[in-house]
Amino acid sequence: MHLTTICRIIGMLLMIFSLTMALPAALAAIYQDGALGAFSYAFGLTFLSGLSLWALSRGKQPDLGIRDGFLVVALFWTVLGLFGALPFYLADNPGLSVSAAVFESVSGLTTTGATVITGIDDLPISILFYRQFLQWLGGIGIIVIAVAILPILGIGGMQLYRAETPGPVKDNKLTPRITGTAKALFFMYVAMTLACTLAYWAAGMSFFDAICHSFSTVAIGGFSTHDASMGYFDSPLILLICTVFMLIAGMSFAIHYHVWRSGRVRLYMQDSETKFYLGVIATATLSVCGYLIFSGEQTPLDGIINGLFHTVSIATTAGFGADDFAAWPSFLPVGLLLLSFIGGCAGSTGGGMKAVRVMLVAKQGIRELKQLIHPSAVIPLKIGSHRVEAKVVSAVWSFFGVYLISFLAITLAMMACGLDFLSAFSATAASINNMGPGLGEVAANYSTVSHTGKWILCYAMLLGRLEIFTLLVILLPAFWRR
Amino acid sequence: MHLTTICRIIGMLLMIFSLTMALPAALAAIYQDGALGAFSYAFGLTFLSGLSLWALSRGKQPDLGIRDGFLVVALFWTVLGLFGALPFYLADNPGLSVSAAVFESVSGLTTTGATVITGIDDLPISILFYRQFLQWLGGIGIIVIAVAILPILGIGGMQLYRAETPGPVKDNKLTPRITGTAKALFFMYVAMTLACTLAYWAAGMSFFDAICHSFSTVAIGGFSTHDASMGYFDSPLILLICTVFMLIAGMSFAIHYHVWRSGRVRLYMQDSETKFYLGVIATATLSVCGYLIFSGEQTPLDGIINGLFHTVSIATTAGFGADDFAAWPSFLPVGLLLLSFIGGCAGSTGGGMKAVRVMLVAKQGIRELKQLIHPSAVIPLKIGSHRVEAKVVSAVWSFFGVYLISFLAITLAMMACGLDFLSAFSATAASINNMGPGLGEVAANYSTVSHTGKWILCYAMLLGRLEIFTLLVILLPAFWRR
Ligand SMILES: [K+]
Ligand SMILES: [K+]
């Protein structure tokens, strides 16, 4: 373990992160919305903490190893999540409690998009911007970590991902990957955000709303500047734009990168994860729209728009709302909630278990049935033309098992905190899948959840965002042994 | 496929099965309880159907292959389940609808123990006896199939089971296994039933109740002759006797067989599945009792008795009730419901996914975490001293995946039938795990579930009892190809 180097990295990250508070501070100063003090104070504290960490851990900087990678990734969201809570705690409006402020901050950074705030429309403009900006920052963090770092750590079968995609970088050291790849990913992310902003603006959003919602769209975050979320704009065109960008942001940025470098758009359709991801969403959309229309719940046009938008919003784990989705016949919201367990592609800003893992598991299930009929046949497991190693398959299965057990344990804990079954189940699913809104008591927001409950859900959001194993592995004694 | 042989086997099974209706018919005649006509008619119809099938498919009888094994196992419960419904449908009391009668019959035979009947205490004595007898018969069927047939079919990693236990029979043909092993298993089963009957009787049950409840106890069935289930007797001693026999019946009958043959009782403690099974139940019992007592919900003595009894009853998937369990703080019933997914040991009369599979998955999860820290280490996966083949592990994982997907799909279907989330979730879990009682709307009985819902739950009970794959594999077109 190279703890000094890790401290230095975290210090640097904190200094960069403090800039996210400088921008809202400027907004607060311009619009005199009353949050200037909170942001200035939070900015100072974060920057100085970062500077101290960075300055105190000078010296020779060795290359980082695998274990250091786990620690950096785990600390990235926990430390930033805590410091990011400062403005929510310090500002008079919303003036959250400690647990609520950390919940809002972690929910933002992990791009979960669950909120504890009621009366979002009345928040100071700087706080509104800050919430969206947290998601945007979390989004790029996720992509860089997922594309550049996780494959090296080999979490839950993500070697698979590295093996299949002729990805950006292939060597095994952390440092060159992060610097080299991160720039390209960042560039694409910014370009996508700009395109999304322009589209929203052209469709009728105010410029401020367009920027804010493009932040939370490309990050598959789901925060909005309005209590009514996307429903506020009452515009099918905006819902469609949002749908398109959610779908794009839910694809692997490694593929985007590859298409961008080679110019070959057909790479999307050659990638089996992308095909699976789009196939599942298309099937779900057809079922949901079909039910809404043929049951007479909605008019055909409304059914198509609402069905498409909500299916994509929940399945990609964005979690934007428009229609009163929680009031649909209950098996639709619950069914979509289950879809969020699949989530986006690996290397996207989406949450969930990731399409590639679910695809692998589905293929393995079918393979096993065939094997039962032909016990002596040798049936290889393939993704595209690439044969999947047994080691990778077992890593993916373990990921599933641990994900499921974590999910169930947290659901029970939330019930012990006083939530009913549907609320506990959906709150946990929405948190661990980094999706956002739940059902039942937590359909609109999480303000009624107890302090303990909020901390548990924070843990769930981090667990999901850190691909479970990152957070679990550092809890093992063996991890800390020399 | 040897369809004539299969028809002959099913015909023979039906003729044997018709005897389960002859005994209640005799009871009905003696006690003049009004169900004589129903049982006579049902007996005649079942026996003649069996005889016709048997007689029509004469001729050369070749050895059966793997695929025939799947069909026989799948037909065993479906055909017997349908014919077994006749008395429930024909008798004036309970006079069930077709769907309700089939539900009650399938629930009995699969040893699920979910009921659609209200007013059980008022049923004719012959019907009461018949319900319990169905469970007892289902129980021995399960054991013979699980110990003698499933390992050959290699369903969901059950080769594992064969590999570890120096089990009764090891060759690969069906016929000698069934005849040879079945006798020994049957003998042990009868002995256990007698012991249980005597214990109940000595503890104060009427002789009739003692027989009836010993039937449903050794079968881990959960049917009772009283609406209040075990609570009717209001006797801690009876609850303890029931607990002990549920625990024994939840262990593998292959181990029982082995202990019986060798006389070495310490074999139980050398078997890793048995240790895991008892360890999980002990941990859960301590947690439940601890919570009930320290939260002040119950007095210490009540807390210990009720906590122990209900934990064992749900964890082994027996499903007997005593206290008003569904009214406990909701995370306890839901937590125990999740335990029923583990269920009994492979080769027991218990349901669920079976302890050995869950143990394997838990070990694999821990192994994977260790592998993350030491990426290049070779860490073998062992059960006891036996190293588990990768093929077996992947079969177990697939079993889990398919089990989970089936569970979720059926839960959604039950919600579409009008059940709320908790009721749908618990009804599906209780059915697929062959456990019995649910929570919410289906806590007491399943009478309010729609016809479609009852059929779906019948399917779930069969799916669970047939280890999922048996029922799924015969739906594959490849299964029917030459
Ligand atoms: K989200
Ligand atoms: K049962």
From TrEMBL, chains A, B:
The keyword Cell inner membrane applies. InterPro entries: Cat_transpt, TrkH. It is found in: Cell inner membrane. Low-affinity potassium transport system. Interacts with Trk system potassium uptake protein TrkA. This is Trk system potassium uptake protein. It comes from the Bacteria. It is a multi-pass membrane protein. Keywords: Cell inner membrane, Cell membrane, Ion transport, Membrane, Potassium, Potassium transport, Transmembrane, Transmembrane helix, Transport. Belongs to the TrkH potassium transport family. The chain crosses the membrane at residues 38-57, 69-90, 133-161, 182-203, 237-255, 276-294, 331-353, 392-416, 456-480. Its main location: membrane. The keyword Hydrolase does not apply.
